[in-house]
Amino acid sequence: MCIRLHKKPRLYTFFAVIPINYLMIRQTLIIAQMLLAIAGAQAQTPFTVTVEEIEFADAPAVQSFVHAQHDGKWLLLGGRTDGLHQRQPFASFLVEGNNTMVYVMDIEAGTVASANLDGLPPSVYEALQSTNQEFEQRGNTLYTMGGYGYSAEALDHVTFPYLTAIDVPALIAAVEVGETGAALAPHFRQIEDEFFAITGGYLGLLDDVFYQAGGQYFEGRYNPMGPDHGPGFTQQYTETISRFTIEDNGENLSFTVLDTWNDADNLHRRDYNMAPQVFPDGTQGFTMFSGVFQHTQDIPWHNTVDLTADGYTVNNDFDQLLNQYHSAHMPVYDGEGNAMTTIFFGGMSRYYFNEDGDLFDDVNVPFVSTISKVTRYADGSMSEAAIGEMPGLLGSGAEFIPAEGIIGSAHGVINLDDLPNEPVTVGYILGGIESSADNIFFVNDGSQSAASTRVFRVTIERNAVGVEEAVINGTVYFDPQAYPNPTNGALHLEFHLRSGGEVEGALLDSSGREVQPLFTAQKPSGWAAYDIDLSGFEPGVYHIRLTNHNHAETIRVVLKDR
Known about the structure:
Layout: E1 23-25, E2 28-30, E3 47-54, E4 66-70, E5 73-77, E6 101-106, E7 111-116, H1 122-128, E8 134-138, E9 141-145, E10 148-151, E11 156-159, E12 162-167, H2 168-176, E13 188-192, E14 202-206, E15 209-213, E16 216-220, E17 233-237, E18 240-248, E19 253-262, E20 273-278, E21 284-289, E22 304-308, E23 311-315, E24 328-334, E25 339-348, E26 351-353, E27 359-361, E28 367-376, E29 382-389, E30 393-396, E31 399-402, E32 414-415, E33 424-430, E34 433-435, E35 449-451, E36 455-462, E37 470-472, E38 481-483, E39 490-497, E40 501-508, E41 514-523, E42 526-533, E43 540-547, E44 552-559
Parallel strand pairs: 24-32, 27-44
Antiparallel strand pairs: 1-2, 3-36, 4-5, 5-6, 6-7, 8-9, 9-12, 10-11, 12-13, 14-15, 15-18, 16-17, 18-19, 20-21, 21-22, 22-23, 24-25, 25-28, 26-27, 28-29, 29-37, 30-34, 31-33, 33-36, 34-35, 38-39, 39-42, 40-41, 40-43, 43-44
């Protein structure tokens, strides 16, 4: 069970928004184009990121899966073949949506081979078809652990307590020659320990040491009303980072935990993005970005956590507002400028920009098309920018698979300085959930989203001329709050002004069109409040937009049936 304590929300500052440009060239969709900005005196090497959808017949529909690669071929296992899970316990995480197949994709040849895993030992078969496993490839071995799904052995939904080692080249070869089921068993080895019973966390590898960060243990049927209303469940966030080694001689598996760091305040997060990093002093490590959920509310975290072999550091000086849920992401290090940039492709987020450049705040954390970047500079400061959009509500539960030979560091960072001064394919985006609308959770019957079969090529070109960015300094400006929300008509609106001046409020419909002005007023700095009567409007989803001479921000409001 997750126990939430109430605490006061942070205040934020929002900087000016600049709309993004889009280009269509030779039927190639240029999704994200960026110019790393000059921050103070820190000149950054500019580069362009291009995301191009490619045709790939028979690409599997999978989301929240695990992957490995060998000799230009991808190995895909686990995850789910449906879209966003439904709210009703009886319909959520159905066994029919488990991915029971292993896929081998040859990106150059455009071919897919597959085999059913049915026939493997039950513990291997069940664990490998679970969702949100943690995984990492070391040499020719893919290690997976945990994951959530239905167990016929336990007659319940569980988080699996297994570490499974997979011989990647051998399994790829076996699938390609048509072996299936029990014939694949020699390519899997497994051990059991409660240490591995984690889902929705992350696994990293650095200097032959594995880093397990965040996640949760979940047992029972998913139930958004909580375990006291309907089917019960057990939910326990790990709230830890663990460093451990895996001893593997090709036959026997064992593990040794080196360190475990506990922090209930800052490591209480799951379903987030963790990316390898090169820190300003040259140290290699990882950053845990954003994630869900906070102790007091079902909203994402904003701060980030850096971890190295020496421990972890919580960064409360920067707030990540965009791309806050697990999505495809790509780390790029500019050694010449000593700048570490992580790019996030779509997913889900509390905040997003509309086509007019307004920053929307939606506490329901909808699906978004945003492509954003977070950059850490030589002085340790960080900035965030929206740099483009995916061609749809894509990216949640997707994976970025680096092109073979493109990774310039031992733990997964692309070194910009190693790339030629011409466009180069650095990887691909595969799978994930494709949603038909931003907020489908409360109406989801399984038809509003699906596991994606779309494949995108990601290209970087150094020294290209980029476009202006919608830059955020890690904070928002007005920090609007509205309650009760949903409302029957009477709404209390509060917002904060960091400096005095004129502020305007307007009511927008669900598509962002202005319905009616609400107020124009001169206000001093500090908190301001208005009581707004919406009883004359039809029930539905609205937004209240606040603007002054430099800032625009929007909060979502739901007007209930009366």
